[in-house]
Design goal:
This protein is an alpha/beta fold and 212 residues long. It has a single domain, classed as NagB/RpiA/CoA transferase-like (Rossmann fold, 3-Layer(aba) Sandwich), CATH 3.40.50.10420. The strands form 3 sheets. A 6-stranded parallel beta sheet has the order 1-12-7-4-2-3, sandwiched between helices. A 4-stranded mixed beta sheet has the order 8-5-6-9, with helices on both faces. Strand 5 and strand 6 form a beta hairpin. The radius of gyration is 21 Å and the shape is globular. 28% of the residues are buried.
Length: 212
């Protein structure tokens, strides 16, 4: 069958059988545990074993440094999507910007003990954060280090996964979806056949979420 015949049949079929647009919808079946989104998010995020710090935008740099001090951070890989210029921080920490291809900075990446990035949104009824991989926040930002610090704008906390997914999808450019839509609950956890849970096998051992 020729290309012309195939296209002709497709056109004829579409005229007879119209394709209806998808109308996605969502019904939340989870009962809320708290009255407001922030309390709901913090409740479930704590259950997911992440450390939560509640601060303000003005105090954010100060609390980030306190967090680094508490976890003993020495070599910090930072994404370029942070709400402040981390390169100008005055501290005794080695700061490594994630601004090059992995093939260029591979040796540096696997020496870091802490990473820091900004989340796009938080999902209240699951206690997770949504992250989009991009040149300013590559995929490995949340995976490579034993300690991961995630910054989350409190105004970007939504009720459910459906709302969060829509926000992440809208982060794409020119109508294209981002390469990766990531949902992070807390530290990486793996259990073997004996049900022995081990933290940090496939990701960070410790996750700290700083709300601002």
């Amino acid at each position: 069958m020729s290309r012309t015949q195939i296209l002709s049949r497709i056109k004829s079929a579409l005229n007879k059988n119209h394709i209806f647009p998808a109308n996605p919808h969502y019904k939340n079946v989870l009962n809320p545990q708290n009255q407001d989104l922030l309390s709901e998010y913090k409740y479930f995020q704590a259950i997911n074993k992440a450390t939560i710090i509640d601060t303000t935008l003005q105090k954010l740099p100060e609390d980030v440094l306190k967090t680094f001090d508490s976890i003993g951070a020495q070599r910090v890989l930072y994404a370029l999507n942070l709400p402040f210029d981390f390169s100008k921080f005055e501290c005794g920490i080695e700061k490594i910007p994630y601004d090059k291809n992995i093939e260029v900075i591979r040796s540096e990446l696997f020496k870091v003990d802490t990473s820091i990035l900004r989340a796009v949104c938080g999902i209240a009824n699951l206690g997770i954060v949504g992250v989009v991989s991009s040149p300013n926040c590559p995929r490995l930002s949340s995976l490579i280090a034993p300690n991961c610090v995630i910054l989350l704008d409190k105004t970007m906390i939504v009720q459910n996964l459906f709302e969060g997914t829509q926000i992440l999808k809208n982060q794409g450019k020119d109508g294209k979806l981002p390469t990766n839509l990531l949902f992070i609950a807390g530290p990486s956890r793996t259990a073997d056949i004996e049900l022995q849970t081990v933290f940090g096998v496939h990701g960070p051992q410790k996750v700290t979420v700083i709300l601002y």
